Amino acid sequence: MGTITFKRKSPLIFIIDSLKYQEILQEAWPTFQQLHPQRFTFQQDGATPHRSKLTEKWLRKKQWYVTQWPSNSPDLNPIENVWVLMKIAVEKRRLNNLVELKEIIQKIWDNLPQIYIVDLFHSMPRLMEQCIERAWDVTKY
């Protein structure tokens, strides 16, 4: 799991469940408030820990503003571009075990330029327009 914002990215965390996810969000809350003191919109994908009833209840209780994106809409989730970039980089390597896989994923994440992330966010209005024009069909990145 990783989080991206205009200002920075979070540490990368590998395997989590709903309770661990909520714990991570609780720890991240002060940073989110510091980076975006007025208000921020929280977006997450459809990963099981993100969409569990426990997590949804926790988010409501904490009064987080969470976007409601259409299901299976990677076009509207900037971080999906990061995951694709990582997948392509991993596929180019010959890895022997899970430790090597984690190491390369961490290295890619650590070296991901913030300007790339900012560009992803700036592309969102164009992608949203394309989704609407295409009746929510896949867009061109």
For the secondary structure, the number of strands is 0
Sheet-strand content, in percent, reads under 5%
Radius of gyration: 16 Å
Percent of residues in helices: 55-70%
Regions with pLDDT < 50 over 5+ consecutive residues? none
Q: Structural class of the helices, strands and pairings? A: mainly alpha
| Major sheet details | none
State the order of secondary-structure elements, H for helix, E for strand: HHHHHHH
Figure out the total of helices. Answer: 7
Oligomer state equals: single chain
* Overall average pLDDT: 84
- N-to-C span: 22 Å
Can you tell me the number of structural domains?
2
Gross morphology is globular
Structure description:
This protein is mainly α and 141 residues long. It folds into two domains: 1-68, no CATH class; 72-141, no CATH class. The chain is built from seven helices and no strands. The longest helix has 18 residues, at 18-35.
Write a compact overview of the structure shown.
The protein is mainly α and 141 residues long. The protein is 55% helix and 0% strand.
Task: List its traits.
55% helix; mainly alpha; 2 domains
Which helices and strands appear, and what pairs or packs with what?
Elements: H1 18-35, H2 48-51, H3 53-62, H4 78-91, H5 98-110, H6 114-122, H7 124-133
Helix pairs in contact: 1-3
